[in-house]
Design goal:
Number of domains of chain A: 3
CATH topology of the largest domain in chain A: Rossmann fold
CATH topology of the largest domain in chain B: Alpha-Beta Plaits
Largest interface: A-B, 27 and 34 residues
Largest sheet of chain A: 5 strands, mixed
Radius of gyration of chain B: 25 Å
Shape of chain B: globular
Largest sheet of chain B: 5 strands, mixed
Oligomer: heterodimer
Order of helices and strands of chain B: EEHEEEHHEEHEEHEEEEHEHHH
CATH architecture of the largest domain in chain B: 2-Layer Sandwich
Helix content of chain B: 10-25%
Strand content of chain A: 5-15%
Structural class of chain B: alpha+beta
Strand order of the largest sheet of chain B: 2-1-5-3-4
CATH class of the largest domain in chain B: Alpha Beta
Number of helices of chain B: 9
Order of helices and strands of chain A: HHHHEHHEHEHEHHEEEEHEEHHHEHHHHH
Chain lengths: 451, 370
Amino acid sequence: MGIKLLLEKADVEGIRSYDVYRREGGYRSVEKAFKTMSPDAVTEEVKKSGLRGRGGAGFPAGMKWSFLAKPEGIPRHLVCNADESEPGTFKDRYLMEFIPHLLIEGLIVSSFALGSNATYIYIRGEYAWIVDILEQAIGEAKANGWLGKNILGTGFDCEIYVQRGAGAYICGEETALIESLEGKRGNPRIKPPFPAIKGVWDRPTVVNNVETLAAVVPIINMGGEEYAKIGVGKSTGTKLISACGNINKPGVYEIDMTISVEEFIYSDEYCGGIAKGKRLKACIPGGSSVPILPANLLLKTAKGETRYMNYESLSDGGFATGSMMGSGGFIVLDEDQCVVKNTFTLARFYRHESCGQCSPCREGTGWMEKILKSIETGKGKMSDIDLLWDIQRKIEGNTICPLGDAAAWPVAAAIRHFRDEFEWHVNNPQECLTRNYGLAHYADPIHVPVS
Amino acid sequence: MSEEKKLFKVTIDNITVDVEPGTSILNAARMIGGEVAPPAMCYYSKLKNSGGKCRTCLVEVAAGSTADPRPMPKLVASCRTNVMDGMIVKNITSDRVLDARAGVTEFLLLNHPLDCPICDQAGECHLQDLSYEHGKEGTRFEYQKRTFKKHDLGEYIQLHMTRCILCYRCVFVADQLTEKRVHGVLDRGDHSEIATYIEKALHNDFIGNVIDVCPVGALTDRTFRFKNRVWFTKPVDAHRNCPKCSGEAQLWMRGDEVFRVTARKDEWGEVKDASDGRPGWICNDCRFEKKDIKDWIIEGPTKVNRHSVISQGHYVGVKPQKDLLPEVMGGRGPKLLLDIHKVSEVNRPEIELSKIDGPAHSDDFKNLNK
């Protein structure tokens, strides 16, 4: 059994309610932080813990906090990014739905550290029922003196507000989220200035993912140094993985980042193997935006080493032979899945979700979708594959926000690793409508040069 | 004690200029002018927060500053990136930039109709200029373009979304120039569109300026549409006493007839400052209602120095573009690499080619002494 920090109490009956949560040791971190620590000491603990942002980019959270500008007389804000809309990612939903008080507790401690008197949870519009759960939890916390004026006699005031989005993936990007929170159209801002200097209403703002803020609770409870001992290297602590696709046991799992990808997929504790006894073909290990990997590169790196479920190992080999930890949306594809169709589905998603502000993303995503659709329906040409490559190359890095990159990477990786399958679609326009390419050689051991 | 402001030194394409802190790379490049200035489809110096969207002005920053000379990993939007002291920028000397710019041009033209001959904006269209300079001959896009119906926004302005490149300039005009905003963007991605809150509700004294800022033919003047091609009309500077605006405008005339009135524009296609130093936006009255020569006091022909089709008419004071190539190339001007006449062992270099009567023939070079 791996170490569990966030989901340790998830199975306790009635953990959603305040009384049970408190009985199980909830809000200890608030007591500890407010009574024995200064705000800077809390930030210092988070820095020591090596906690990395769980929203996808993996930026060290403590570092982000220390960038926050603290000018005199200007309020600062903490915003919790609960706009979890990445296809394949549903870890925050689980956390907020079943242990809402863990997030509220993390928010209170973080608000204390950052000096945020008004903290916002920006939640995905489709999570309508979770808003009620969170608001009930906030109400209970307030009734028990964890929120409001002069919390625990420290003189620190804090309120938490829940704001619903209106169903746009782009509002998960922090500056678009801020625009939307201000009541404007959710277009990403042009950076600099970064939110740490000018965020919500031009005030210094920190935007963190739900899981990041919830992880502050165990960090304060056990101390940053203890937390950093879990995991390996720069991948400290535990990570929630939402596993889905062709596996026996889809769901949200907490891992301590020391297990191998193979173990995660095949062990009964986690995914329980590929469904219906089929074989593994490919996997998108970190949510739809990260590069897809064929089975052989997923289980072993290009150097022939075992690939582990952590930030460094998953990105080993760069984009040429690696992928990314991303937001932890682990999507498994078995031998009967079509990579072309999968890529088309993702391209359609990004086309629909592009905000339309900058031209490469607005026009490029639509173009890629159209080409992928024609390849998928047997109308593609061989030159379309190279054209796709050229389009993604011209989108990547040239856009305002990372959505352009997120749209380009899956297409690039699919062509890089599964070019045979694209070519088969072009060469067999009739056959590709009735059957899939199959596993082919994608699970064959890769040739490792002897060095 | 007044301290002298420290100027920043910035090198763009091997040409160094001193600019005030807080200047964007684009504006610094415009000080140099010519080809060194990146094209801009969405940035508009008179509109706050504009820019950063079209990505045509991407440049490469080869060195961030003297203090931190690391290059920036990504290409940056020059209109929204400020210069630092000692910054080294590559625009037309960077292959990466030219490649990205060609890509952006292709993207902008994907959903834009390629029917310039029947478009009212032809001749003064920034996208037309951009595609001449950075576009490719053919298109690789083999699908249907998005199309919209034409909309009349009130009696003066027509919106044809099919031509729109979503630069947001008109949205900023509606936001910053008019009192009540009735103009914005609906929907998102490639299906987003410029729209009014309630169609046909653009009643505002300054809303006509959306036509001037539109880089393409998406917003056009209904009082001028298809009355004439712009290059047949003569631009003339004129003014009148206007209680609402500066009254300083540009008339587009043919004979004694005033076909169109617009604000005066500078060489970057942006509205010039009026004589009182404020941006020379003009009001709807001047723009749409005063089409009689008697309403105006003519100052003289406009000095056009844009390089677009308009300047192909023989206007007064057209400034030829400065040739910056020798400077950009660092003194290594383009030169003839090989003079075949001199190095050839067949031709005799002592024979001056221009002295040969008629076309040169092998007989002319025969060594008769041999």
